[in-house]
Design goal:
The chain is of the alpha+beta class and 136 residues long. The protein contains three helices and five strands. Strands 1-3-2-4-5 form a five-stranded mixed β-barrel. A hairpin with a 4-residue loop joins β2 (30-43) and β3 (48-64). The longest helix has 11 residues, at 70-80. The termini are far apart.
Length: 136
């Protein structure tokens, strides 16, 4: 089992969006605003994607889950994001530092665009200029 880190959510898993209701509502102990530096947010077919990009940032929330629910939530989110053990799924889950409003950094799980999706986004970019899905 990987470490029980909070999740940085930036799209449909954010509070008020459909996948938050379906997968995280009632399962969070804390939700705080956070920023992922060195990454760009892109519009995708129906979902947002994040790819590494120097000088850009993505806005979202840091979601903490209680230890007793963690294995189930992690499995649910990996399945939702098509995050596969071979790293070839729609998304890949990586441990990255995110910055909180008070300037402190903490590690979190972040779902980034998988290799096939990232390649397509880099060849035909569709960035969200603000880095915030709620502006898309």
């Amino acid at each position: 089992m990987p470490p029980q880190l909070p999740f940085f959510v930036y799209g449909t898993l954010r509070p008020g969006h459909r996948n938050h209701q379906r997968h995280l509502a009632g399962r969070c102990t804390e939700v705080r605003g956070a920023v992922l530096d060195g990454a760009a947010l892109h519009r995708g077919p129906g979902y947002p994607y994040v790819v590494p990009c120097a000088g850009r940032q993505v806005h979202g929330e840091l979601v903490s889950v209680p230890p007793g629910l963690y294995p189930r939530v992690l499995a649910d989110l990996d399945r939702l994001e098509d995050c596969t053990p071979d790293g070839l799924g729609e998304y890949v889950r990586e441990r990255l530092a995110v910055r909180l409003a008070d300037g402190t950094e903490t590690d979190a799980w972040v779902y980034l665009a998988g290799p096939r999706v990232a390649a397509a986004l880099l060849s035909a970019p569709a960035p969200v200029a603000s880095g915030d899905w709620t502006d898309a």
